[in-house]
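Co-fold these.
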Amino acid sequence: MKLKLKRTKRNALGDIALILASALALLLVIGSLAVIVIDVGIHGYERLSWAFLTESPDNGMMGGGIFPAIVGTTAMVFLMTLAGVPIGVATAVYLHEYAAPDSRFAKLVRIAVQNLAGVPSIVFGLFGLGFFIQWVGPGIDRFLLGGARMFGQPGILWASLTMAVLTLPVVIVATEEALSNVPNSVREAAFALGATKFQVVATVVVPQSLAGILTGGILAVSRGAGEVAPLLFTGAAYFLPELPSRFSDQFMHLGYHVYVLSTQSPDVDATQPILYATVLVLLALVFMLNLTAMVARSRMRRHFA
Amino acid sequence: MERTSTTPPPSVKLSIRDLQVSYGSKRALGPISVDIYERNVTALIGPSGCGKSTFLRSLNRMNDLVPSAQIEGSVKLDGTELYGAQVDPVGVRRRIGMVFQQSNPFPKSIAENVAYGLKIEKKLQKSEIRDRVEQALRRSALWEEVKDRLDESALRLSGGQQQRLCIARALAVNPDVLLMDEPASALDPIATARIEQLIHELSASVTVVIVTHNLQQAARVSSYTAFFYLGDLVEYNRTEVIFRNPSQEKTEEYVTGKFG
Ligand SMILES: Nc1ncnc2c1ncn2[C@@H]1O[C@H](COP(=O)(O)OP(=O)(O)OP(=O)(O)O)[C@@H](O)[C@H]1O
Ligand SMILES: [Mg+2]
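Predicted complex below.
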């Protein structure tokens, strides 16, 4: 058979079409991000100032800053991570390292996790309201605090825990993925040196998965920082110049603040610069969180490579 | 290595009786009975799938980790039953180390790799750990090459160095027996020669059981050889007997390269 070396016209056309299609897709992705960032940047920049970042809102939301919302968002994300990541990692470690491959129970948990990931966020809000605020909270109030109403109402703790539940699937899936990337030969090496199951997991498998676990943490944090719907029922305050000082306090949240500014303002023109500036801060906060985690992850990679 | 027929046989380190392993309903090994002699190198040879790795992994209870594996029979180390009800497999693996075909260093530093077995066992002084790391690296003939880069990642070592690191890691806990499953099959001839030399040196202090597909290697490094075929131990004898004067036809065919 004669070898055909010449490029056919059909092949060449196919290449061009594919290149065009991927260029278009790329443009769409980068373009929309650029439009958002530039639009928000230009409009939000003017109103941005040190005072805006460090003062409370006043004058019916048409003046002042967004300091309580920045602190509230950060605190909520922090509490959410503190509660959600350990539980998610522990769940994934159980599923991947301890459960038998054909375990019924593990299969059930996995299905639950997958479905949890598909539940609309507003439903998580209702869950938080029904579970934490109307059931767990009043229980705490009645049995531990002698009846004073404290946890039986929306507050930053319940909001964070609700968010933690919402972000749990992200952490679990990312962690399991990271664990499955650890080659079995390394587990065997540790076992062969006389490590117990727990030692293998704690000193070899989990450390080697840290970069992946961190990725899950980042995804969870970005999702948690941007999600608003679950907070509506669980603790976000419409307007609250004081910072939360107890777990049961309500708090202001950047995302919720954006929603409030854009829908509840008596004077749309007057609030618009504030609105843009708030969005800018929210975006910056999420980008910053992502960046921090990305740097941490690449450091980790370098350390282990 | 050469032993004349007048020297008494060495003492038995591992005594295996009626050992049988199946995966699910499929028998993979035995029942076989064999004695492994102390401070000697014993080679396990035989065609692929004949149960060499299965046998090796039964000696340090690594097969316990395979859910479908069923192990019957008895393995005694210095007279102590390893499959006794009270025996912790973790303890068995501390006394019987293992080196795998594919080198499998942890993504940690060279020193941390070697120290791993020590650190998980008990809390030791830093200086003690450092000494034992050096000692293990010297025993595995790696010390001169890595002494200035102990804190570097083990993954940056060459394949042959990584395998010697894995040997050092196994030696650091001072095992009585070292099991090696085709330790040199992924290495070039020079690295292989180093490993063989090392095995020879180690046999002065530890009992070595090595699986190899390389018959010359078996002949070079071992003083006893066991020939496995289809899950059975066909013949077990001094290496020179197996290679020059085997009693079984199957053995002869295998060592002369008629199949395998
Ligand atoms: N984890 C396992 N599950 C099921 N069957 C297994 C398992 N490990 C080995 N076997 C089977 O047991 C038999 C013996 O395998 P083993 O790995 O001991 O052979 P081997 O002599 O080491 O072969 P090789 O020279 O190719 O490494 C084979 O038929 C193999 O398919
Ligand atoms: Mg094998």
